Amino acid sequence: MSETTSQGASSTSSVYQAYQANTYLFGGNAPYVEEMYENYLANPGGVPDSWRDYFDALQHVPAADGSNAKDVPHLPVINAFAERAKQGGTKVVVANVDAEMGRKRTAAQQLIAAYRNVGVSWADLDPLKRAERVVIPELEPSFYGFSDADQEAVFDTSNTFFGKNSMSLRELMNALRQTYCGTIGAQFMHTTDQNHKRWWQQKLESIRSKPSFSVEQQKHILDRLTAAEGLERFLHTKYVGQKRFSLEGGESFIACMDELIQSAGVKGIQEIVIGMAHRGRLNVLVNSLGKMPGDLFAEFDHTAPEELTSGDVKYHQGFSSDVTTRGGPVHLSLAFNPSHLEIVNPVVEGSVRARMDRRADPLGKQVLPVLVHGDAAFSGQGVNMETFALAETRGYSTGGTVHIIINNQIGFTTSDPRDSRSTLYCTDVIKMIEAPVVHVNGDDPEAVVLATQLALEFRLEFRKDVVVDIVCFRKLGHNEQDTPALTQPLMYKKIAAHPGTRSLYADKLAAQGLGATLGDDMVKAFRAAMDAGKHTVDPVLTNFKSKYAVDWAPFIGQKWTDAAETAIPLGEWKRLAEKITTIPASVTPHNLVRKVYEDRAAMGRGDLPVDWGMGEHMAFASLVASGYPVRLSGEDCGRGTFTHRHSVIHDQNREKWDVGTYIPLQNVTDNQAPFVVIDSILSEEAVLAFEYGYASNEPNTLVIWEAQFGDFANGAQVVIDQFIASGEVKWGRVNGITLMLPHGYEGQGPEHSSARLERFMQLSADTNMQVVQPTTASQIFHILRRQMVRNIRKPLIILTPKSLLRAKDAASPVSEFTKGSFQTIIPEQKALKADKVKRLVACSGKVYYDLVKKREEIAADDVAIIRVEQLYPFPHKAFAAELKRYPNVTEVVWCQDEPQNQGAWFFVQHYIYENMFDGQKRGYSGRAASASPAVGYAHLHQEQQKALVEGAFAKLKGTVLTK
C-alpha cells in the first residue's frame, strides 16, 4: 500500500471507493478479517503494517455513505472507526490501495491462518501410514492465487512467532509446514480466547514444533520406551493367553506419563490423581507408579492375598505411591475403575476437588487430575460430555484436566473406524469447552514428550482442560485372546511389519552417535530387573507421608451398629436455631421465604412443631458447628425441588450471586466447618460420580447428592452399581456418601413417584450400605448426624418424602431432637391393649399416615401399626421385639404404596418370616405387580391407594404363608 496524508475527512470518498474495491477481504474471509480487526483494536502495533494502514484508513469512512446498512460490508467496523474519529485524532493516514499487492499481502495472512486452523489435517500423525496424505487446497499457495513466480516474494510475518518480521513465500511455507504439519498437529483456533490462541502460536511457531532434548533426556526417553515394551513382552511370554490389555504399539504413552509426573513436580504439583480404563493400566502401575513387579506377578499367579469380600480383576485395581521428581515428592493415585471405562473420570475429578479443598488450593496449583482415554470411549461415552460440562462450574472445577488419549485408530474391538463416531477426530467432543488438542504421532516419542510439556504448561497457566492425542496402534487384539486380523487384515499386516517404537527410536539415537548397542543394553537390563521383581521407577518413597494425607484407619474394619449419640443439648439447640433463622437487615428475602424463616424461628423456640426442613437444617448446623463440613449438591438443592429447604436466601433487591445471596448455615459459629450447597448442572451420572469421588477422599465431610426426583437416579445407575454398592467389597474402598432420593406415591405418574427402592434393596448385602425411609423431622435429623458421628462410613440411601415435607403429622417436638436417636423401627404410637391386638401391620414411608387415618375411621384397635425406618441392614432385634409386644398376633401384614414387584416387599418378606412365631400368617397389601412404577391417571391412583389401605385391614386373601 502507498500512503498519503490528509486532514479531516476530505478524502473519505476515495477511501470508501478503495474499501468497496477490496471486497475480497470479506465474505468467506470475514472471520479472518474480524480476528485481525480485534487484534488491531487491542494493539494497533501488533498487526502487520498493511493491516494497520488499512484499518487506520477506515477511520473516516462514513457509516453508510448514502447506502443502506445492509449494503456495507462490516458496517460495525466502519462505525467503530467513525466513533473513534469523533473522540479525537487529528492526522490520519489514508491508503491509496494497490489492489494486486494488497491482495497478495492479505492472501499471505490467509495462508498463515489456514495452517493454524487446518494444518492438522495434513500432519504426519499415523505411525502405520495407511492413508496417503491427500492435497488440502486451503494449504496450497495456489489456492490464494500465488504462482511459482511468487516464491521469493517477501511478505510481512510480524504477526507470527517465526523470529522474522518478513519472510519469502518459500520460507513461510516451510515454517508453516514444519510447525503445523509435522508429527505434531495442534487444534486451538476454535477457542474464542485470543490469549489462548496467541499462547499456542508462540509456543509452536517459535520452535516450529520441534523438540530439542539433551543426550541424557533422549536416553531417558529410550529407557521409558524400553520399560513399556519390556514389561509387555515379559508378561506375554510368562503368562501366555492371560488378559492384560497390552500397551504394545502405544509405548510412547509411558514416556508421556513420565514427563508429566516429572514436570508437574517441578512446577509445584504435589498430588496427581489418574483415571484410566484397561489398556496400558498394568504398565502404568509398574512403570509410572512403581508397583513392585513381583506383586503384579503374584496376581497373575493367583497367589495375591485375598483380603476382600469379593475382589476384582487386576486391570481394575487402583494403586497409590509417592515418587521423587526434580521438584520434590509427588503423591500418585490411580483410581479403581470398573469395566464401564469412562465412568471413572468424574470420580477422579471429585477426588481431586476434595484434595484441593483440603489444601485450600482453589486453583489446582498443587493437585492435578490426569485422565487417560481410549479413542472410541472418549467420543462415545456420554459421561465424558457431562464431565466436560462440570469443568468450569464453581462447585466442580478442578483447575483444568490433562487428558491423554491412547488412540489405537480402531476403537475398542475391531470395528470399522467409520462406525466409531460421527466426527473427524475422536477429540472433537471436547471442543464444547474450547479445550485445545495436540495430536501427536506415537512413533515420535520426542514429539510426544514435547506435546506433554506444552499441555501441562497450558493447564497450569490457564486452568483449563487440554488434550494430548497419541495416535498409535494396538499390536494385539482388544485382549490377548482376540484376533483382530479377522476383521482388519490390511491394518494388521502393517502392524505385523512394524518394528516397534522402541526399536525405531533406538536406531535414531544410534544414528546420532549415542552407541550402537545402547538399545540392546537397556533391554537386557530391564529384563534382569523383571526377573528379579525389582522396581522400574527409581526411586519410590516408602516412608513419605504428606501432612494432607487422610487417616482412614478409624473407619476400617468397623462392625455394624445402629447405635449413635445424635441428640444435642437444649441450650445448643436454641443457640443454633437462632443463628440459622436470623436474616441480616441488609438482606431482603422473598415474602414466602421470610415466612418460612419466621416459622423456623418459632420452631427453634418450641412454639411450633419442627418440620422437615428445619430438622434437616438443624442437623447441618450442629454438624458444621462440631467441625464436620457439609457438601450438598444436586439440581435445585439450594431451594429444594419442593421448595422446602431454602438454604440459600436470594436478596430480592440484588441480582448477582456473589452479593445477592445469604446462606445462614455459613454463619453458625466463628470457627465452623464449611457448609457448601451447589445447584448442579442438569446431570445425574457425572455429578453423582463426582460426589462419590469427593466422599472417597473426605471421610469427615457429610457429602450429599440429592436427586430432583428419586426416579432420576436411573441416570446414575452405573455409579450406584459399580461404585456405591460394590466399591468396598471389590476394592476395599469405604465411602460415606449420602443420597437423598424424593420418593412417594402422590399421583404424579410413573416418572415422579418411585426412587426404585427395590434396586437398592437388591444391591444390599455384606452390610455394604444403609437404606432408610424416615417419616418424621426428628428422624432425618438423627440419621444425618449418625452418618458422621459414628466411626462407620457406609453409603446412606435416604428415601425422602414429598408430601410429608409440610405435613403436620410428620413434624416433631423439640424434645425428640434433644433426646433419643435414630429409630430403626418406630413402634405403635397409640396406647393399644397389647393382648387385644390380633394383626400387626408393618410398613415404611408415607403410607403409614394413611393407615393410621383408616384405622381411626373403622376403629380397628386390634391392629398395631409399626414403621420400618431402616430397611437395610434390617433391624431384626427391633422387629422381633415388636412382635413379642403382642402375644396374640396371628397375622403379620406388610403394606406398601409401591407395586408388588417393586418397593421393599420381595426383600423384607424374608426378614419378616425369619422373626415370626409358629402359627402366624404373613400377608401383603399393596399395588399389584406392574411394569411401570406408577399409574399416570389421578383417578386410578386414588382407587389403588384406597384399595391397598383397606386391604391392610381386610381378611387375608389368596395363598397365605404360615410359619
Description of the molecule:
This protein has five domains: 2-97, no CATH class; 103-205, no CATH class; 215-302 and 312-541, Rossmann fold (3-Layer(aba) Sandwich); 610-647 and 663-818, Rossmann fold; 828-962, Rossmann fold. 47% of the residues are buried. Helices cover 38% and strands 14% of the residues. The strands form six sheets. It has a nine-stranded mixed sheet with strand order 5-11-12-10-9-6-8-7-13.
What is the count of β-strands?
Answer: 28
In CATH terms, the superfamily of the largest domain is Thiamin diphosphate (ThDP)-binding fold, Pyr/PP domains
CATH level-1 class of the largest domain: Alpha Beta
Helix content class: 25-40%
Task: Strand order, main sheet: write it out.
Answer: 5-11-12-10-9-6-8-7-13
Distance between the termini: 103 Å
Main sheet overview: 9 strands, mixed
Task: Enumerate how many helices there are, as a single number.
Answer: 32
CATH topology of the largest domain: Rossmann fold
Structural class: alpha/beta
Morphology = elongated
Share of residues in strands? 5-15%
